[in-house]
Amino acid sequence: MNKEEFVWGKHMSSRLDLLKIAMKYIIKLVRDADRLAIVSFNHAVVSEYGLTRNSADSRKKLENLVDKLKASGNTAFRPALKKAAEILDGRGKEEKKKRVGFILFLSDGVDQFQYSRINWEKVAKSTDVDHSEVGAMLRKYAVHTFGFSASHDPVPLRQISALSYGLYSFVCKNLDNITEAFARCLGGLRTVVAAEIRVDLKPKSSDKQQQQQPVLIKSIDSGGYESKVIGGGTSGKILIPVLYVDEVKKFIVHLKVPKVSATAVNNQQEILTADGDANSVDGKTVRIKEHKLAIRRPPEVVDQADLRPAPQVVEQVVVFKLLDMVPKTFQQRREDDHKGVKNTKVAVQLLQRNMDGIRRSDAWTDLDVGTRRRIDEQVKEIADHVEKGEGPAYVNSWVSSQEMQRANTMGSPNKVVAEFVTPAMKAIVEEVKKPLEEKIVEVSPARLPVPRLHLLQLIRLIIQIQIQLRLIRLPLLSNNILHVLMKNQLIIRILVRIHVRWSCLLKI
Predict the structure, then answer these.
(1) DSSP string computed for 62-114
(2) Residues 301, 219 contacting (CB under 8 angstroms)
(3) What digits encode the pLDDT tens for the residues 472-492?
(4) Domain of life of the organism in this record (predicted)?
(5) Is the pLDDT of residue 363 over 90?
(6) In angstroms, rounded to a whole number, what is the distance separating the alpha carbons of residues 415 and 407?
(7) What region does 389 belong to: left with phi over 0, alpha with psi -120 to 50, or beta?
(8) Nearest by Cα to 138 from 222, 82, 179
C-alpha cells in the first residue's frame, strides 16, 4: 500500500485501517483445526508469520502483526507470492494430502516490473526462466486475488488468479463493508469437500459400422477449467481443482455422431459414458459413478410436438459464447488504446456490435425471454461500468466469476453473481453484517456450516443433452433419450453438470 487514502462511511478510515479490520475478522473466522500464515510486502517481503494452528494465543499474535502493518515502499507481487508458496510447500506430506492450500492475495497497488521482473500477461505462454518459474509456482495453489480501491491494477491480479484456478475480486465502493468480500471467499474455502476432480468422457461405438465411423468428441467448453480431447476425439477429460458444498459446475461437450443404418433394441444407441474420481478432504480417493447417455434413433420422428431444444443446454451454450466474446472485445479495445483511441464510447459500441452477433445465433433464438433479459442485463452492466471508467476491473472480475462458475466480488461487496452463491457463503456474509463490535469480538466459527464427511454425498454427475441439426432441432426427453433420425450425421451438444450436495445419513 503506497498511501493513506481516506474513505467515508460510518467512520472516516484509511484503506489500511479497513483492511486490518477485515484481516482480523479472517483470523477470528479460521477454525481451530486450520492453519494460517500472513506475509506482508511492498517491493519485497516485509514480514511473515509462518503457518500456525489457530488458538487464542496464536490469534492474538496474528492480530498484533496486523496492527503493525504500515503503508510504505513500492509494490512487487512476485516476492510475496513466492514466500506464500514456500510456506505452503513446507507442510508435511500427510497435511498436503488432507488439506488443500490456498493463498489470499490483497493489493491496492500496481506491480512494478523493476522489482518483480514479470510480465503477468505472458506467464502462461512464456518459456524463459523467470516466467516459467512463476507459472509453475502459481499452478501449485489457488490464489484468490483482491484489488481494493480504484488505484489497483486488475490485469496482473486477474492473470495470477486465472493461472492458479483462483478468483479475482475487487472492491472500490462501500469500502466500509470490505469484510463481506473476504467473508464470501472464506465461506467457500471453509466448505471444500473434494479436490483434484477428474471427469472422464468416453464416446461409445458398439457395432462394426460405428467402429468404422465412431462417435467422437469434437470439443469441450470448460471456461476457466482445464479440459482435454484425447486420441482424436476417442475420449475426453475435465479437471476441477476443488469443489465446495452445494456448488454446480456446467460444461458443454460437442459430439460428432455419424449416421447409422440400424440400432439395437428399441432403436436406442448409447453414445457416451461419463465417470471419474476425486480426492475427499480426508485424503481418500472417491470414484464418481458411471453415467450413460443414450439416444433413440428411429427411421423417422413422429411426435413433432417434442421437437424443441433443452433450455439448460442452450443457456450454457450462450454463456460460453458470451464468455468467449467479452474478453476478446476488450483485448481488441486495449490494442486500440495503444494506438491512441481512448474513447469509452468506442468500447461500448464494440461490445454491443459483438453482442448483436450472438443475438443472431440459433442458440440465442432458442432461449426463453427471461434468460435473454438476464443476459442482456449483464452486458448492459458491463457497458455501464466501462462508461464510468471501471471497465478493466469490472470486466476482469466478471470474466473470473463466469469462467470459474464461482461467486466473487465485482466492485462493491454486495455485487455478486447470485447463482454462484452457496448457502455457506450466504451464512457467513450474514454474520459479517452484524455491528462492527460483534463481527470482531463475538463471531464464532462453530456457528457457520461446516461439512462433515460421514454426512456427505461427495459427487453427483448429471448428464443432460441438447441436439441441433442444420434445419431440425431435436428434443430432450426423459431418461436421456432423444429421438434422432438414423440417416442423419449429427453434432450433439451435451451439458455435463457436476453438483456437490449434502446427504444426511440416519444412524439408529
Answers:
(1) HHHHHHT----S---HHHHHHHHHHHHHTS-HHHHHHS--EEEEEESS---HH
(2) no
(3) 333 333 334 444 555 566 677
(4) Eukaryota
(5) no
(6) 10
(7) left
(8) 82
Over the stretch 34-45, which tens digit does the pLDDT of each residue have?
Answer: 888 888 887 777
Q: H or E segment at 413?
A: none
- For 451, the grid coordinates are 461439512
Among left, alpha and beta (phi > 0; psi -120 to 50; other), residue 479 is left
pLDDT band at residue 65 under the 50/70/90 scheme: confident
Secondary element (H or E) of residue 273: strand 268-280
Q: Is domain 6-193+389-448 in CATH 3.40.1050.10, yes or no?
A: no
Gap between the Cα atoms of 432 and 302, Å rounded: 58
Question: According to the model, what pLDDT value does residue 501 have?
Answer: 60
Q: 473 or 184: which carries more pLDDT confidence?
A: 184
Q: How far apart are the first and last CA of the chain?
A: 57
C-alpha closest to that of 319 among 277, 358, 284: 358
Grid cell in block for residue 318 = 450462450
Higher pLDDT, 117 or 382: 382
Asked whether the beta carbons of 173 and 393 are under 8 A apart, the reply is no
Name the 3-class secondary structure at 117: coil
Interstrand relation of 102-107 and 142-148 (parallel, antiparallel or unpaired): parallel
Query: CA nearest 151: which of 502, 378, 392?
Result: 392
In CATH terms, the fold of domain 194-308+454-502 is Immunoglobulin-like (2.60.40)
User: Residue with C-alpha cell 500496481?
Assistant: 110
78's CB contacts (< 8 A; 6+ apart) are: 111, 115, 116, 117, 118, 134
Q: How confident is the model at residue 373 (pLDDT cuts 50, 70, 90)?
A: very high
What is the pLDDT confidence band of residue 89, given thresholds at 50, 70 and 90?
Answer: very high
Q: Rounded distance, CA 435 to CA 266, Å?
A: 64
Cα(43)–Cα(113) distance, integer angstroms: 10
Indicate if the pLDDT at residue 262 is higher than 50.
yes
Tell me what the mean pLDDT of segment 127-145 comes to: 88
State the average pLDDT over residues 92-97.
85
Mean pLDDT of 288-301: 75
**How does strand 168-171 pair with strand 192-203?**
unpaired
Distance CA 475, CA 306 (A): 6
Quick one: pLDDT band at residue 311, thresholds 50, 70, 90? confident
Nearest Cα to Cα of residue 495 among 274, 308, 287, 251: 251
Per-domain boundaries in the chain: 6-193+389-448, 194-308+454-502, 312-371
Report the candidate in 193, 90, 182, 187 with the shortest Cα–Cα distance to residue 144: 182
pLDDT digits (tens, 9 = 90+) for 10-24: 333 577 787 788 788
Q: What are phi and psi of 421, to 5 degrees?
A: -80, 125
- Which residues are CB-neighbours of 68 under 8 A, at least 6 positions away? 47
